[in-house]
Write a structure and sequence with these properties.
single chain; Heat Shock Protein 90; Rossmann fold; nine-stranded mixed β-sheet; 20 helices; 35% helix
């Protein structure tokens, strides 16, 4: 026997330290993790055997055996799945792919109940066995190969891998040497209950060998999704969800459907009740497993659900796809596309139903997954209208979350436009000068605070043929929305601001600011603020432009339109002093100060911060501060 000693990488050492020192209270889950690994090993070999039946010719019936040896104080979990060779043992048990371990460590919250469910999420499930064992030995023989290898570790930083000369059939055995303090797990009744509780739905038969050496099957070993709904208890759904999601919460929505017609498939899908740990991970992996005729195919590199529904958990089992399909061809398969479209439609329908039935409950879902869901609005192929039906946004007028339909129902008059303002914080947006005129006239403005909002409005700026428009556009005239009586009052109040005065004011601002502005216009939306920045129709929105500059997609910001409020005292003062030689310098400084102020409010950089400070100090001194 040749033996090779290796050290765990540093990050796994940290995980093992946590496991061994019992940071987790729910130690029972080690059995769930080991059985899940065995089930996956059987699924992988079942798939490979579709094209190479010789791999399972000597033992075609997949199974998992669990055995307790009270005298030796050991528990063994044995499967006849795909097995591992020497390289597999080192890669699977000596390292963790990518940054999984570091992510695992960073997610620890100190809440034992939540932390103990993180194990499966980051692929560290095997190491959970060190919570109850002080020595673990893994013996394995890979399908199609003759050599048998052994992996062993006490969890103290090192492991050994050796080739062993023993009679061992295909598959893997994990042998746990149970700690003295954890000997309660050697009780047959307790361990059998744990297996039944966590793994009853596992499609591979699980056998438990009792004290008399008799092996009894302990799980139903039938795919839960293939059973009639009437035969499934709520608790079974919950346990299945927890097994596929590695989450401690209960599912918010359960969708169990058998689809018949042009495409036949069964889906058992769940929407979690809490935010998933990897929702915005760069990999954005699909967490829905694809089965074909109850044979597990893959849960990677497959477009079975759109990326914006990546919070879904569960399985899809197709009757129409061939078992020998190449995994690469799944990306461009018409049947897969039809399944995806059907699932997407069902999910959006279910979400709309939930939104209409219990809005407060729906808001919890939205706070968890709304940001991801709106990514679908950026995809040209998405059904934008169906997606927008389930989106909700903060209303500036009513200070609550509302849908587009509710917004339109609240609109006054026949001419309808959905107005919005985008930014990073709803509270700050509500105090923006951009919307003060809207709110004063009872016109609502939706506050967009997710970065994705800046993108999707450029893909599709309409909902049910109603324009979705930013309040930062310079062509907005709120006077058109007034009633006839209000228009008379507006006309009376604006007599003092005749066309010639406005032209004179605009000309002076343009001359003073020069190339700092693209244009200067009289504002039709400001009420209490003197000025604000705006962009022309068809131009890029201010926040979107700033985002692209931050991402190095644009080199510099474009000049903006400055809107001025002729009814504001400061603007009136500027107008009254335009022809005064005595106040010429003060007037120009005041114009620049208003422009700088408008830039600050919109988060735009002030061209000369030093000059801005000097102007501000100048006027503070004049006010005898």
């Amino acid at each position: 026997m040749t033996e090779e000693k290796n050290k765990f990488d540093a990050e796994i050492g940290k995980v093992l330290h946590l496991m061994i020192h019992s940071i987790y209270t729910n130690k029972e889950i080690f059995m769930r993790e080991l059985i899940s690994n065995s089930s996956d090993a059987c699924d992988k070999l079942r798939y490979l055997a579709q094209t190479d039946s010789t791999l399972i010719a000597d033992d075609p019936e997949f199974k998992i055996h669990i055995k307790i040896n009270k005298d030796a104080k050991t528990i063994s979990v044995r499967d006849n799945g795909i097995g591992m060779n020497k390289q597999d043992l080192k890669e699977n048990l000596g390292t963790i792919a990518k940054s999984g371990t570091q992510n695992f460590l960073s997610q620890l919250s100190g809440d034992n109940k939540k932390d103990n469910m993180l194990i499966g999420q980051f692929g560290v499930g095997f190491y959970s066995a060190f919570m109850v064992a002080d020595q673990i030995t893994v013996t394995s023989r890979k399908a199609g190969e003759d050599k048998v290898y052994s992996w062993s570790s006490d969890g103290n930083g090192e492991y050994t891998v050796a080739d062993v000369d023993i009679d061992f059939s295909r598959g893997t055995e994990v042998l746990l040497h149970i700690k003295e303090a954890e000997e309660s797990f050697l009780d047959h009744f307790r361990l059998k209950h744990i297996v039944k509780n966590y793994s009853d739905h596992i499609a591979v038969p699980i056998y438990f060998t009792d004290d008399d050496g008799v092996a009894n099957k302990v799980n139903s070993s039938s795919a839960l999704w293939m059973r009639p709904k009437s035969d499934i208890e709520p608790e079974q759904y919950k346990e299945f969800y927890k097994n596929v999601s590695f989450s401690p919460d209960d599912p918010w929505i359960i969708m169990h459907n058998k689809n018949e017609g042009t495409v036949e498939f069964t889906n058992l899908l769940f929407i979690p009740s809490t935010k998933t740990f990897d929702l915005f991970h760069p990999d954005r992996k699909c967490r829905v497993k694809l089965y074909i005729k109850r044979v597990f195919i893959t849960d990677e590199n497959i477009d079975i659900v759109p990326p914006y529904l990546r919070f879904l958990r569960g399985v899809v089992d197709s009757e129409d796809l061939p078992l020998n399909i190449n995994r690469e061809t799944l990306q461009h398969n018409s049947t897969i596309e039809k399944i995806k479209n059907s699932i997407t439609k069902r999910v959006l329908t279910e979400l709309k139903k939930k939104k209409d039935e219990n809005f407060e409950e729906y808001l919890v879902f939205w706070n968890n997954f709304g940001g991801a869901l709106k990514e679908g609005l950026c995809e040209v192929t998405s059904d934008h209208e169906k997606l927008l039906e389930v989106c909700v946004f903060r209303s500036a007028l009513h200070d609550k979350m509302i849908s587009f339909d509710e917004y339109l129902d609240n609109c006054k008059g026949d001419e309808k436009t959905i107005y919005y303002l985008s930014g990073e914080d709803a509270t700050k947006l509500k105090n923006s000068p951009q919307i003060e005129g809207f709110l004063s006239k009872g016109i609502d403005v939706l506050l967009f605070t997710d970065t994705v909002d800046d993108f999707w409005v450029n893909v599709n700026g309409r909902y049910k043929d109603i324009q979705i428009k930013s309040v930062t556009r310079a062509d907005i005239d709120l006077n058109k929305t007034d009633s006839a009586e209000n228009k008379v009052d507006q006309k009376e109040s604006s007599k003092e601001n005749n066309d010639s005065s406005n032209e004179k004011l605009i000309g002076y601002f343009k001359e003073t600011l020069g190339s700092l502005v693209k244009d200067v216009k009289i504002s039709k939306k400001l009420t209490s603020s003197p000025a604000c920045l705006a962009v022309g129709e068809g131009a890029m929105d201010i926040r979107m432009e700033r985002f692209l500059i931050e991402q190095k997609q644009l080199s510099a910001a474009s000049s903006k339109i400055l809107e001025v409020n002729p009814n504001h005292k400061i603007v009136k003062k500027i107008l009254s002093q335009i022809d005064s030689t005595e106040h010429e310098e003060e007037n120009k400084q005041l114009v620049h100060l208003l422009f700088d102020q408008a830039c600050v409010i919109e988060g735009q950089p002030v061209e000369d911060a030093g000059a801005f400070a000097r102007r501000l100090n100048y006027f503070l001194e004049k006010a005898n501060v």
